TrEMBL record:
The gene is NAT8L. Signal peptide: none annotated. This is N-acetylaspartate synthetase. The keyword DNA damage does not apply. Residues 50-187 form the N-acetyltransferase domain. The lineage of its organism: Eukaryota, Metazoa, Chordata, Craniata, Vertebrata. Keywords: Acyltransferase, Cytoplasm, Endoplasmic reticulum, Membrane, Microsome, Mitochondrion, Transferase, Transmembrane, Transmembrane helix. Belongs to the NAT8 family. It is a single-pass membrane protein. It comes from Neomonachus schauinslandi (Hawaiian monk seal).
Length: 206
């Protein structure tokens, strides 16, 4: 469910992060008016473009979900419980799983990556995500890792504020991240864009 939320978020909210795409869409509307002199057709251009954004966001996100369900989320024990330096936690409320988070070690640079954080939308605002994040930080401290890192394509400001409240520093962003499931076709490049943000929390100096 958390992954499926990315469809409207990326298609609509995410457009605000890409001014060049906004400009391109505006130029297409102007071009439509110049060629047709029809206000009706010109007004339909934005609706059509947003519809295409939703279609391609859904296409890519569903491919990403399929990839997740056939890799790490298909065998959590194998991916996160057996390898040293990795772990997986669930938040349980009234007998129901309402949140998850994972940690995976990168021995090359002595860091732990925070992964798969998600909280059921019905239970957000209760501190569950922050508690899950702290579990990863405690895990990294106990196992003497020097830092915790994460990458996110989250559009909502609340997600970024959460990471910052846990002590993470924003290390930069990129518009060239290739999400698993992307085909990089021309149509996809026009109607699906994500901005990838990197965060880091330094626990101790090497």
């Amino acid at each position: 469910d958390g992954i499926m939320e990315r469809i409207p978020n990326t298609a609509f909210r995410g457009l605000r992060q890409h001014p060049r795409t906004q400009l391109l869409y505006a130029l297409l509307a102007v071009l439509c008016f110049a060629l047709t002199r029809s206000l009706l057709l010109t007004c339909l251009v934005p609706a059509g473009l947003l519809g295409l954004r939703y279609y391609y966001s859904r296409k890519v996100v569903l491919a990403y979900l399929d990839c997740a369900l056939h890799t790490d989320m298909a065998d959590i024990e194998q991916y996160y419980m057996k390898p040293p330096g990795s772990c997986f936690w669930v938040a349980v409320l009234d007998g129901n799983v309402v949140g998850i988070v994972a940690a995976r070690a990168h021995e090359a640079d002595n860091t732990v990556e925070l992964l798969r954080m998600s909280v059921d939308s019905r239970f957000r605002g209760k501190g569950i995500a922050k508690a899950l994040g702290r579990k990863v930080l405690e895990f990294a401290l106990v196992h003497n890792y020097s830092a915790v890192v994460l990458g996110t394509t989250a559009v909502k400001v609340a997600a970024h504020k959460l990471y910052e409240s846990l002590g993470f520093r924003h290390m930069g962003s990129s518009d060239h991240y290739v999400l698993p499931g992307m085909t990089l076709s021309l149509a996809e490049r026009l109607f699906f864009q994500v901005r990838y943000h990197r965060y880091r929390l330094q626990l101790r100096e090497e």
